[in-house]
Amino acid sequence: MKTIAIAGTFDTKGPEFLYIKELIEGLGLNTFTIHTGVYESSFNPDVPNSEVAKAAGTNIEKLAAKKDRAIPMELLSKGMEKLIPQLYSEGKFDGIISLGGSGGTSLVTPAMRALPIGVPKIMVSTVASGNTAPYIGTSDIIMMPSIVDVSGLNSISTKIFANAVFAMAGMVKFENTKKTEKKPLIATTMFGVTTPCVNAARKYLEAKGYEVLVFHATGAGGRCMESLINHGFIQGVLDLTTTEWADEVIGGVLSAGENRLEAAAKNNIPQVVSVGALDMCNFGPYDTVPEKFKKRRLYKHNPTVTLMRTNGEENKQIAEKIAQKLNMSKGKTVLMLPLKGVSSIDTKDQPFYGEKEDKILFTTLKDKVDKSVVEVIDLNFAINDSEFAEIAAQRLIDLINM
């Protein structure tokens, strides 16, 4: 019989957690309760808060004696982050669910992030409709808005809690038993304006016996890819769409952070890198574009996304950053430059066509990369030409087989 872990502050939200516990057990599933609160639980948990505190290298009496709520919460969160993966590896549970406000969410989600991808994780939270990146990170946590505060049982909260329980029950009860052939994993990056390139490269690689994971280069996508590379899942990287660096340098909304483009280099994973969609920086709806950029070349990609054409100085800065990251490589890194355009709207007669701006990007990259560890290849194609895609894919295969 499958078991669902229930983690949370049983001292302050006991009735709410007992409600989902009874629901889960009523579905014929076992429960495994973990108390993350500072004070005594309102019911007897399987894992008391003293064990959580011990995992953090402290004791619960010391934490309870502190008047500053932030310190105990930080330590208990660290204890959970250490304890939960251990309990999962011991077979104590098959999925984990929690409820909370900002504090309860911060307590449990680091532990959820520490679990392997694919382990069911649901967080019902008052902060689920805002910026969830600090809680989810690069994991597969499902965050469900609680609508009302997690405080009491009422006609709204009980419906939301029940929906979360039924979703969790479905995930742990049903498993995909369809067998898939184990193939070497390739990670690649895509944006709407580089889709033809990535689709052609993916088909080429799949025909050669590889499985291709496509990551949408929207910030979260780049971070997820880097995380999987760091965790040893990926055998080769076809990083064709490095547009997240434009947002990082300029201040757009789709940055993947300062560590983008490091994982493959640090882990000596073969990588072919290109400059897809570096002709643009991303903002939200048109009226959210910062005032200082209002007179720049803008393009309404859709009602919620406005693109800004990168200029020469920005391209120089972006190229310097990318070169710095590529130079971390221990070898097996190729930089491919599509001289006729870096996106579908950066070709002749298209709205972001910028021969001068692209030339600055290409020239700076060639000047700054360390040729002893990075091979630079100029190709007289636009990035979405099928020839470019297939050459890039085959070059990655060559690197993997070296």
From TrEMBL:
Pfam families registered for this protein in UniProt: UPF0261 (PF06792), UPF0261_C (PF23189)
Species assigned in the record: Clostridium oceanicum
NCBIfam families in the record: PRK02399.1-2
Residues covered by the UPF0261 domain: 2-176, 183-399
Lineage: Bacteria, Bacillati, Bacillota, Clostridia, Eubacteriales
Stored InterPro entries: Tobamovirus_resist_UPF0261 (IPR051353), UPF0261 (IPR008322), UPF0261_C (IPR056778), UPF0261_N (IPR044122)
The protein's name in its UniProt record: Tm-1-like ATP-binding domain-containing protein
